[in-house]
Design brief:
Order of helices and strands: EEEEEEEEHEEHEEEEEEEEEEHE
Strand order of the largest sheet: 4-5-6-7
InterPro entries: DUF3179
Shape: globular
Number of strands: 21
Radius of gyration: 19 Å
Helix content: under 10%
Organism: hydrothermal vent metagenome
Protein name: DUF3179 domain-containing protein
Pfam family, one: DUF3179
Strand content: 35-45%
Distance between the termini: 33 Å
Number of helices: 3
Structural class: mainly beta
């Protein structure tokens, strides 16, 4: 999901009905430039090289989203098609994260197996979380006042080792303990087939379990 404002003007995009490296392309109605969806970058036309700001977003089940956001308004073209859509993450899916000049991918199945991963992307501490049942993924900056935090599971709760606070991962919010009301900023991420992610980010790192 991208912010579609360009130089202060809100752009209107459409499906260009063609693929670039097996991924969707858009066209903007003002200049008719062609844009790569994974990059959010214009690849042809007068806007070539311009990039849209990537926003945090989620791929999850409707039931899980509705439970957390009951007032959500849904825009949908064909309700009858919902029953035929995929309801699980493919085993070859990765959670791809870009941060400044760094890019890193996490295999969804490996994250879901351990629930959460403490990691570094460049010099930034990050927390990556995934659920096998709701297919939620969250990627957040794991720092409090510039101090890196390390998280662990205690039963169904997520706690940090430094202060022992309890966190709501969906909000990125400490709900109990010394860090109560502290927020972990969300990081934009993409879910994609592993081979497709590395087509667009060939120099990205791939997270490996320390036990491997």
């Amino acid at each position: 999901m991208h912010d579609r404002r360009i130089d202060g003007e809100t752009a209107v995009f459409g499906n260009a009905t063609s693929l670039f490296m097996s991924a969707m392309t858009w066209w903007d109605h003002t200049t008719e430039s062609i844009w790569s969806q994974p990059w959010g970058r214009a690849i042809e036309g007068s806007q070539k090289g311009v990039e849209l700001f990537l926003l945090p977003s989620q791929v999850t089940t409707w039931s899980a989203w509705r439970a957390e956001h009951p007032q959500t308004v849904v825009m949908i073209n064909d309700f009858d098609r919902l029953a035929n859509l995929r309801q699980t993450f493919d085993e070859n899916f990765v959670i791809g994260v870009t941060l400044a000049d760094e890019a890193k991918a996490y295999r969804f199945t490996e994250v879901a197996e351990v629930t959460l991963i403490n990691d570094m992307i460049g010099e930034t501490a990050v927390l990556v979380w995934a659920s096998e049942t709701s297919f939620h993924t969250y990627v957040r900056v794991a720092e409090s006042i510039d101090e890196p935090l390390t998280f662990y599971m205690e039963g169904d709760q997520i706690k940090d080792e430094q202060a022992g606070s309890v966190w709501d991962i969906s909000l990125g919010l400490a709900v109990e303990g010394p860090l109560r009301n502290t927020i972990l900023p969300a990081l934009p991420s993409l879910t994609a087939f592993e081979e497709n992610w590395f087509d667009f980010y060939p120099h990205a790192a791939l997270w490996q379990s320390p036990t491997n």
